[in-house]
Design brief:
Layout lengths: L5 E6 L2 H13 L5 E4 L16 E5 L4 H9 L2
Antiparallel strand pairs: 1-3, 2-3
Length: about 70
């Protein structure tokens, strides 16, 4: 059984989420994104499709955070 994915960060929309996931995937980290469930986000209803959360496997969380912090 695979572990549930965990959130690395949130971004302002699908194009940014795709860019972040592309970077992660290029470095061997499986990645996905979805609309965030947070209703108290400062960016709620801002932009076209809403805030997205970037998700990775728990085992990849530290490497993903490090890679994204370099950007």
């Amino acid at each position: 059984m695979e572990a549930e994915p965990v959130r690395v960060t949130t971004v302002q929309g699908e194009p940014e989420a795709e860019a972040f996931c592309g970077l992660l995937r290029a470095n061997g980290i499986k990645c996905g994104h979805r609309l965030t469930q947070e209703s108290d986000s400062a960016f709620e209803n801002f932009g076209g499709d809403g805030m997205r959360e970037i998700l990775v496997a728990p085992a990849d969380l530290d490497a993903a955070r490090e890679l994204l912090s370099e950007q």
